[in-house]
Amino acid sequence: MDEMNYQAKEKAFVIYLYPEAGLSIKEQIRFRNILNNLPVPVIVLTESPYFLSDNLKGLNYFINNVQKITESFFEHSYWNAPINLEKERIKERFEYLFVKYCSVLEIKPIISNYLLADIIAFNDIDLYIIVSFLKHCNLEYTLEIDKTKISLALSTYLFS
Question: Which end of the chain is less enclosed by CB atoms within 10 A, N or C?
Answer without folding.
Answer: C
